[in-house]
Amino acid sequence: MDLEETKLPGVGLRHDFTTARGRRIGVISTRGGERELLVYSQDDPDACHAVVDLDGDEAEVLAELLGQPRVIERLARLREQIEGLATEGIYLEDGSPYVGRTLADAAVRSRTGASVVALVRGGEVIPSPAPSQEFRSGDKIVVVGTQEGVRATADLLHNG
Amino acid sequence: MHTAALLIELGAVIFGLGLVGRLAGRLGISPVPLYLLAGLAFGAGGLVPLNAPDEFLEASSEIGVVMLLLLLGLEYSAGDLLGNLKRQAPVGVLDLLLNGLPGAAFGLLLGFGPVGALAMFGITAVSSSGIVAKVLADLGRLGNRETPSILGILVLEDLGMAVYLPILTAVLAASGVWEATGSVLIALACLAVALVVALRWGGVVSRFVSAGSSEVTLLRVLGLALLVAGVAEQLHVSAAVGAFLLGISLSNDLEEETHHRLEPLRDLFAAVFFVSFGLSTDPGSLPPVLLPALALVVVGVATKLVTGWFAAKRAGIALPGRVRAGAALIPRGEFSIVIAGLATAGGVDARLAALAAAYVLAMAVLGPVLARFADPWARAYVRRRRERAVTAR
User: Fold this and answer.
1) Cβ B80–A7 below 8 Å, yes or no?
2) A46: distance to nearest CA of chain B, Å?
3) What is the C-alpha separation between B253 and B203, in angstroms, rounded?
4) Total tally of structural domains belonging to chain B
5) Is B318's CB within 8 Å of A26's CB?
6) What is the DSSP string of B5-46?
7) pLDDT score recorded for residue B51
8) What is the DSSP string of A19-67?
9) Are B142 and A47 in contact (CB < 8 Å)?
10) Is B37 a member of any domain?
11) What is the C-alpha to C-alpha distance for residues B236 and B181, in angstroms, rounded to an integer?
């Protein structure tokens, strides 16, 4: 995929690319923070078939909708690519001893060999959390490792 | 009593502009031609001669020109200017010559003299970046692939004006050939120094005006703009160009919020500028110049279409996009009036102001309409092509 960047003097930046199925789409980022979603016409490749104006919040919502499943998709693909690699999203329940404690406190990697690659909290993804990242009840903790490592992590997070 | 009369007249003028601006919004056209019409109607020899407070209007319209150019400069960073100059220089030169030379020729034919011809060159050459940018946004064409070429031309025209305006100011101010040459050289030297400062030390200038609160920043930017414009005028570089260069040097670092705060000020003072240009033009002088203006309009539409075609073709755009680019460039507006204002103040033939007013009135209204028509035309063209391809098979 070739992402093209074009400067629009006095307006902002335009990014666009052609999808595998041949549709050209793009986004204009204005200097004021607004976004324009562009869908190019199939008959006249230089013109837009549809233009949607988005303010900052709307653009963020759209980005989340498009972006979040991608993280999960990528993990699924990763699992297929590397044999023997397991990923799992482990929900942290109320009774867990790690609610309110940090990633460093759990010492997941040194105790199980598996790695915490992301946290999903209230629909928001926190990729590569820092050791100081605190866990909350209801967090989904995305773990990558061997079958046993992932199972041991689930056990650790549930029972301490 | 004097204060009361002043306030009432000013209030009437500004309120009237508000009404006119609303009408322009309803009709979906730029308010510039309507401001001009309002000025013509209420000025000397107009329908209802208004005894406008001259000094205030004069000062406000000077500030209007400074604000117009300051905000224009703020739109573009020095990088934008140089980048476009590198990529699109041939298009920029073609644009200015193709659109300016017919105007200059008309100026000579009508007997405005060489200085008048120089002014006519500028009046016909420069598209209105304000109107063009608004038309592109309104028609949802900012994402179109010909749009960078259009915006690039606007940038280059504005840069061209930064060279042209000092030359015009110097020529207008000088009395003999030698003095004129001297002033032009001084003006260009000042311009070069200012450009280098803007490009190299823009950050320093920005730090100079940035302050904690946006209110203080606003006052500092405004004050500095007027100071720089005044000094530039003193050096015969033209106040407008001083403000433009200041805008460029501030554009990188000044926050978007300051920009937004300056816009209403620009709108107010620029509106007063357009009205007072209209006020100072006698509507009785319009009919004799209508025929030449009409001829200029026809030529001006054709030459911009060619420019847009050429620019878009260079960027690898197909035929419909080339026509859209040409049609979008047609509107002339604020710059043409700024130039005509300078020329009239410098003692060029009074018919020039009337001609410029008629020309801008026509172009500012006709331009956006033609730009709009380019879309259905392009769709019809694409459909015809496809049908022909089908029947050929």
Assistant:
1) yes
2) 5
3) 7
4) 1
5) no
6) HHHHHHHHHHHHHHHHHHHHHHHTS-HHHHHHHHHHHHSTTS
7) 61
8) -TTS-EEEEEEETTS-EEEEEE-SSSTTSEEEEEEE-HHHHHHHHHHHH
9) no
10) no
11) 12
**Range(s) of the domain holding residue B126:** 68-278+285-378
Distances B386 to B21, B318, B381 between C-alpha atoms, Å: 43, 14, 9
Q: Which residue of B has its CA nearest to A8?
A: B148
Q: Report the residue of A13, A35, A44 to disrupt the B interface, i.e. the one with the largest count of B CBs within 10 Å.
A: A44
- pTM for this prediction: 0.76
From the list B39, B234, B251, the residue with the least C-alpha distance to B158 is: B251
Considering only CB atoms, which chain B residues are within 8 Å of A43? Answer: 379, 382-383, 386
| Mean pLDDT for the stretch of residues B142-159 | 91
Instruction: Go through chain B and tell me how many residues it has.
Output: 393
Of all residues in chain B, the percent with pLDDT exceeding 90 is 27
Give me the residue label for tokens 């400069």.
Answer: B73
* Residue B316 belongs to some domain of the structure: yes
CATH code assigned at B223: 1.20.1530.20
Single-letter code of the amino acid located at B334: E
**Closest by alpha carbon to A27, among A41, A42, A12, A10?**
A12
For residue B100, the 8-state DSSP code is H
Q: Which CATH architecture has domain A83-159?
A: 2-Layer Sandwich (3.30)
- The answer to whether residue B305 is domain-embedded is yes
State the count of interchain CB pairs (< 8 A) between A and B: 77
Measured between CB atoms, which of A10, A14, A38 is closest to B76?
A10
Beta carbons of A7 and B83 less than 8 Å apart: yes
Please report, for residues A144, B182, B190, B233, the alpha-carbon distance to residue B158 in angstroms, rounded to integers and kept in the order given: 57, 24, 17, 18
pLDDT tens digits for range A41-97: 888 888 898 999 998 888 888 888 887 666 666 666 666 667 677 778 888 888 888
User: Over 90: is that where the pLDDT of B103 sits?
Assistant: yes
- The predicted model gives B215-233 an average pLDDT of 88
pLDDT at A18: 92
Q: Look at residue B359 and tell me if it is in a domain.
A: yes
